[in-house]
Design a protein that fits this description.
This protein has about 475 residues and is of the alpha+beta class. It has two domains: about 350 residues, Beta-lactamase, CATH 3.40.710; about 100 residues, Beta Barrel (Lipocalin), CATH 2.40.128. The strands form five sheets. The chain has an eight-stranded antiparallel sheet, sandwiched between helices. A hairpin with a 2-residue loop joins strand 7 and strand 8. Helix 2 runs parallel beside helix 8 and helix 2 crosses helix 13.
């Protein structure tokens, strides 16, 4: 199996333009495969190994949820405690909802928010965690409380803030003391300061116009419990062994079995599930874990995506199987393809070449996106009549929660600068009428059409959108 897997992965590195991949497979309590491929930084000879650090993004959430489930098992809090019991200053748009929200609600994404709602404000910004919580409290959810599932990163930040109230230790200190150290996860880190000081850490990458580009690590401290952990395949193998051991590692009980079970108990319904080739009948969410049935087996899994990295962690408890895939570009679906390929092999399912299948889908999507952008660029080149001059566009705008955006005219183009995202800007080009194409200098934030609202011949507001990877919900900035 290893030889064929080597060929499969080496080919994928080229096909997907991935600098490096690290993989671990745990079966029946033992690491049966741990291997790394490629380099830590594109264009270098710096090969990754089992100790190379990668951003694991939202795979951080299972650590946060497990920590709180541990505290529940130790009777230091209850997952069904009202959040305001521990955080009296906790507020939401609806005061009644804020009063009713439990720690469990925070950990299973059922506050009524749209998926990623608010993340543009928070993600990679200069906001402190206190400022994030303040702004989060003012967002009007798109849906009613507990009516549907909506992936909410700021909810996990809030959950992490409960830990110091219950223990006197910060989120980072607590998971280090109660999870990292007992498991021997000696290289795993949680903060920007640690990232800057770390050795053997991978660079972050993305793909722009089919070219690999190194990008900066994200500013993750203000949302740390939702996605700040950097870890290695060696350290993550220990986390997976403990998970599959129902809380035990090397014959030591690290996390009570009851706490492990809490995180794997369904709390939110996502839908019927589904899979291109094999049977998958439902999709649920526990606490920091996605839960699904696949080929008659329960799958406990999560993915993670953060500036320049995507990762996958999957557990098949009934097969005593765990798979970890870490990659150092955010522009690939191979991390999921590889996970499925290995999972299918252990379930005696047919080989599907998920990598090729997903690549065709991504190529098609990229072609469609480039075609749409190309059409818009052609429209820009036509210099159609515009309802809004650049001079009229220039000025300062305010979003009631985010803060300010300033539009300056530079070399004949409008440039939008955001108060809380230093160094990030969008260049605006007229599509005619009252629409502009906004292209961010950071490719992670995308290329989107921004409509301008004009009233009595004057610019009233601009509707700002960013890449779906960051947030789906638009922001209306009103001109001051």
């Amino acid at each position: 199996m290893n030889d064929s897997l080597d060929v499969y992965i080496e080919k994928a590195l080229t096909d997907w333009k991935i600098p490096g991949v690290a993989i671990c497979v745990v079966k029946d309590g033992k690491v049966v495969m741990m291997k790394s491929y490629g380099v830590a930084e594109w264009g270098s000879q710096n090969k990754i190994d089992e100790n190379t650090l990668f951003g694991i993004g939202s795979n951080t959430k299972a650590f946060t949820a497990t920590a709180l489930a541990l505290l529940d098992a130790e009777k230091k809090l209850s997952l069904d405690d009202k959040v305001q019991k521990w955080l009296p200053d906790f507020k939401l748009y609806d005061p009644w909802v804020a009063k009713e929200v439990t720690i469990r609600d925070l950990l299973c994404h059922r506050l009524g928010m749209e998926t990623f709602q608010g993340d543009f404000m928070f993600f990679d910004s200069d906001l402190t965690k206190e400022e994030v919580r303040n702004k989060f409290s003012r967002i009007k959810p798109l849906y009613s409380f507990r009516s549907r599932w909506g992936y909410t990163n700021a909810a996990f930040l809030t959950a992490g803030e409960v830990i110091p109230k219950a223990t006197g230790k910060s989120w980072s200190e607590f998971i280090r003391e109660h999870i990292f150290l007992p498991l021997g996860m000696s290289r795993t880190i949680t903060s920007t300061a640690e990232m800057k000081a770390a050795t053997n850490i991978s660079s972050a990458h993305t793909i722009v116009d089919d070219v690999i580009k190194k990008i900066a690590w994200g500013k993750l401290d203000n949302m740390a419990p939702a996605g700040s952990i950097f870890s290695s395949i060696s350290d993550m193998s220990k986390w997976v062994q403990m998970q599959l051991g129902n809380g035990k590692f090397n014959d030591n009980m690290i996390i009570p079995f009851s706490a492990i079970q809490q995180t794997r108990t369904p709390n939110s319904i996502l839908g019927n599930g589904g899979h291109e080739f094999n049977k998958a009948h439902f999709a649920l969410y526990g606490l920091g874990w996605f839960l699904e049935e696949y080929n008659g087996r329960k799958i406990v899994a999560h993915t993670g995506g953060v500036n320049g990295f995507v990762s996958s962690v999957a557990l098949v408890p009934e097969k005593n199987l765990g798979i970890v895939v870490l990659t150092n570009t955010d522009a690939n679906n191979f991390y999921e393809a590889l996970r499925l390929e290995i999972m299918d092999a252990y379930m005696d399912l047919p080989y599907r070449n998920y990598s090729g299948h997903y690549q065709e889908g991504q190529k098609s999507g990229n072609m469609q996106r480039l075609t749409e952008i190309g059409k818009k660029k052609d429209t820009i080149a036509m210099k159609l009549k515009t309802d809004v001059s650049l001079a009229a566009l220039s000025g300062t705008y305010k979003h009631s929660i985010y803060g300010h955006m300033t539009i300056n005219i530079k070399e004949g183009k409008a440039v939008a600068i955001f108060q809380h995202h230093k160094g990030r800007f969008a260049t605006l080009e007229s599509l005619g009428g009252s629409r502009f194409l906004a292209t961010f200098n950071d490719p992670l934030f995308g290329v989107k059409v921004w409509p301008v609202q004009v009233q009595n011949g004057k610019v009233k507001s601009i509707t700002v959108r960013v890449a779906d990877f960051v947030e789906f919900t638009p922001y209306e900035f009103v001109k001051i």
